[in-house]
Design a protein that fits this description.
Number of helices: 3
Structural class: alpha/beta
Largest sheet: 8 strands, parallel
Low-confidence stretches: 1-19
Number of domains: 1
CATH topology: Leucine-rich repeat, LRR (right-handed beta-alpha superhelix)
Shape: elongated
CATH superfamily: Ribonuclease Inhibitor
């Protein structure tokens, strides 16, 4: 009997060591959503090894109110948080992240920093009046339609190919530093063709400019 108990204890301890430390979440709805899909050993908790195996977080309409817990998923490549209510978002240092989407999330403040592999960012249908994006050298597609943006700085986005800022409050836009840009949608803004600053090497198809 003692040998059997000892063996069971050792097995539990071994599994605990294998999966690593239990992670603590700030947002309980976020925790509930990820446990449904990624609690591999079914112990009702998420360990560091389990989180490290996650590459896609598809968490639409889960009642999530904070993105602080994203820091726990260091290897995630795609994050989709559409149709949650998340007023303030700050994400940084997710080296593997390639796509981030949070459309219809009532975001009023968004900051992204040091996302070196991010190529696609979708923030449509929010409440953004401004946006902070730094250290995102590979951004290829940026979609910010249906917000309240009055200005946007695009100079750092050297490989940006597709930009959608339709239905904001922009009055001018500078794409002179975006030589790779192929399409620009500015419909629903009070921008005339003369309000668009283009570089000499910029060949872009523009949708929605006023005459």
């Amino acid at each position: 009997m003692k040998i059997k108990i000892f063996t069971t204890v050792c097995l539990i301890s071994g599994l605990s060591f294998f999966y690593g430390q239990t992670l603590e979440f700030k947002d309980k709805n976020f925790e509930k959503a990820v446990l449904e899909n990624f609690d591999l050993n079914k112990n009702g908790m998420l360990e560091s090894l389990e989180a490290g195996m996650v590459t896609n977080l598809f968490l639409v309409q889960k009642g999530i109110a904070s993105t602080e817990d994203l820091r726990l998923f260091k290897n995630v490549k795609m994050i989709v948080l559409d149709d949650n209510v998340i007023p303030n978002i700050a994400i940084s240092n997710l080296d593997q992240l390639e796509l981030f989407s949070c459309t219809g999330c009532k975001i009023s403040s968004f900051k992204a920093d040091n996302l070196k592999n991010l190529t696609s960012l979708y923030l449509d249908n929010n409440l953004l009046e401004s946006i902070s994006l730094t250290g995102i050298p590979k951004i290829d597609q940026l979609t910010l339609s249906l917000n309240q943006l009055k200005t946007i700085n695009l100079l750092q986005f050297k490989v940006l190919r597709k930009l959608n800022v339709e239905h904001n409050k922009l009055q001018q836009i500078d794409i002179s530093g975006n030589s790779a840009l192929q399409t620009l949608n500015i419909a629903g803004n009070k921008i005339r063709k003369t309000d668009i600053k283009k570089g000499t090497k910029t060949e872009v198809t523009i949708f929605g400019a006023e005459e």
